[in-house]
Amino acid sequence: MLKMRHLSPKDYQESSWSGGKTRQVYLFPQTSHYGDRDFDYRISTATVELERSNFTPLENYERILMTLDGNIDLIHSDSQEVISLTPYTPYAFSGASPIESRGTCTDFNLIHSPRYEGHMQAISSEQASLTSSCSVQLLYFLVDCRLELDGQILEIKKEESLLVDIGAQQSELVIHFIQTKSPSAFKAIWIGLDKRNC
C-alpha cells in the first residue's frame, strides 16, 4: 500500500556543523540518532559558510551531494583528487573519504547505509512527470508546486517535502507535475532509495 507523508520545515531538525548549519529533512529509522550513527539513511540540506571547511567523516556510509547554489570544489585529502561541483549536479562518494570543501553554497545531501542504493536528481521546471520504482522516494520542493499523485492533487509549498513509500505491491510510482510559472530552472530535488539484494 502506498504511504505518503507531507513534511514542512517545522518537522525538520536544525543543527550546526563545523562549516555552517544543517537542516535534517528526514532520518530513518525515526527512532535513530544521527550522532549515534545508527540510522539507515538521512536526507538534509546544509549551508557551507566558510571558504574552507572539512566534511564530517562518516565511516560505513555512502553519500550523494548536490549544490543548490554556488560552485564548490571538493578535495579528497587522501588522493588530492579535485571535484568541481556546479548547482544541481549530484556527486556520489564514500562517507569515509576525508574531504575538504572550498567555496560557499547551500547543498542537499543523502547519506545512506551500503545496504541501500541511493539516487538523487534535480527536477527541472519543464519536466512534466517522474516515474520510478524506488521503494522509498522523497521530493524536496524549491518552489511552490501542484502535482498529481495516486489520484490526488497536492499543493506543496517551497521548502516542504513529500515522502512516499510505495510498498511491495506497487511496481512504480508516477508523479505528474501540474505546470506552474516559476522563475527557477528547477522545481524540486528527488531522492530514491532501494534496499540492495545481499
Automatic annotation (TrEMBL):
Pfam families, A to Z: HutD
Record-linked InterPro entries: RmlC-like_jellyroll, RmlC_Cupin_sf, Uncharacterised_HutD/Ves
Alphabetical list of Gene3D superfamilies matching this protein: Jelly Rolls
Domain of life of the source: Bacteria
Protein name per its UniProtKB record: HutD family protein
Origin species: Streptococcus oricebi
Lineage: Bacteria, Bacillati, Bacillota, Bacilli, Lactobacillales
